[in-house]
Amino acid sequence: MNRFVNVKSLAGELKRSEVRRGVGYRLTTKELVLLREDQSFHIYLDDILGVFSQDEEDVTTHTEKVGDTKVSAHFGRSTYKIVTHKMSIYNRSGMHEKGSSTLYTSLSDGFSRQLLSLLKAQ
Asked: How far is CA 102 from the centre of its chain?
C-alpha cells in the first residue's frame, strides 16, 4: 500500500528524490513535489516566487535575484519557507488548485542546493 497521496505524473527530468522523516521529496527540472501521508503539494518551479530560510533574520544569508524570484540559500539550515504564485494540493478526496501560498518544509542540504540551482537556471 502506498502511504503517500499520489500526485500526477511528473514533468521534466527527475533530478532528486528523497524520503526523510515520513515526507517524500521529488525535484524535477520543472517542478517540486512534497509527498505527505495526508496530503501532497505540487509546485511548478516557474510558480515559485521565493525560497527563504525560516530563521533568515538570525543568520547570514546568500541571496540572489533570479528574474522576479528572490532565492535565499542557507546550506546547513533545514527549514524553508517556499512562497508560490500557485500550487496544487492532493489529498485522499482529490486535487484542488490554490492561489498564492506559503509552504514550510524541511529540506536537506543537497536538496536545497539542487533546488537553488534549478531556480537559477529558469
From this structure: 10
The pTM score is 0.76
- Helix residue spans in the chain (DSSP H): 109-121
74-to-2, 3, 105 alpha-carbon distances in Å? 32, 30, 14
Q: How far is 118 from 9, CA to CA, in rounded Å?
A: 19
DSSP, collapsed to helix, strand or coil, labels residue 117 as: helix
3-state secondary structure of 114: helix
- What CA–CA distance (Å, rounded) separates 120 from 64? 9
Grid coordinates belonging to 18: 528523497
Per-residue pLDDT at 79: 85
Distances (CA, A) of 63 to 1, 85, 103, 113, 120: 41, 20, 19, 13, 11
Give the residue among 114, 101, 109 at the shortest CA–CA distance from 48: 101
Q: What is the pLDDT of residue 83?
A: 94
